[in-house]
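Dear Dr. V.,

Thank you for agreeing to look over these. As mentioned in my earlier message, I'm a first-year student in the group and I'm still getting used to reading structure tokens, so any feedback on how I've presented them would be very welcome. I ran two proteins. I've put each sequence directly above its structure. The first is here:
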Amino acid sequence: MKRWAVCYVSSAATSLNEKDVDKILSWTQSWNVEHKLTGLLLYSDGNFFQVIEGEMNTVKNLFNNICNDTRHHNLIKIFYKEIEKNSFEFYESNFISKRSKNLNHEDVPYLKCLKSLDQSSQKAVRNILNAFLSDNF
């Protein structure tokens, strides 16, 4: 079975409020667990960052739906590729937001999961993660 990964950033629709974002994050977590997808979803200051990994057809179909979702716009695909194994295998759709202020971005375990990505993908994801988790974003 082929494995696939996608990573993107996007801007939330201005009509989304905190309650809407919480519903999205809750639904995403349960749906991804049910479909054996792993990854990470970040939300900060009106922006989403997501990594999704799993069975190729499931990930591709999900990403197609994400691209057509009107709750966000300005979607930028960072990578979309076949993978040998999941980088986030122990993280079933974890979520970090600015409300997770107790996290020190240097200690975030997700950064350690990036070792299986190629160097340019590692750098892009690391920079985005650090930006999302810093006070300067």
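The second protein is here, in the same arrangement:
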Amino acid sequence: MTPASIRYIVDDVAASVDFYTGHLGFSIEQDARPAFASVTRGPLRLLLSGPGSSGARAMPDGRRPVPGGWNRLLLLVPDLKEEVARLKGAGLVFRNDIITGVGGSQILLEDPSGNVIELFQPAAH
């Protein structure tokens, strides 16, 4: 099975690799630091494109890809409160507090470049 791939533009590839492998259970697939790395978690492949990578090159009109938008990958967690406490204990940055809706609970975590990861715990049925 081919993994699903998402590209994140990052400011520092090494810091991003450390973040995703050290805190969120990803493994290094390809390491071309400082320009690029790819990390995997199950069927997800995350492409980390630094300033020196082809994925971060300027567009013909001069616009540059930048990190930190609102599109995000979503990681399921079995116990959201426990995971948030663990990550806050490691000094990681969140955009909000846990919110709960009909489908479950979620919170938005930022990587070192400001890209968003949604941690989600489905509602019990």
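From my reading of the second output: The mean pLDDT is 95. Residues 51 and 102 are 40 Å apart (CA to CA). Does that match how you would interpret it?

Kind regards,
E.
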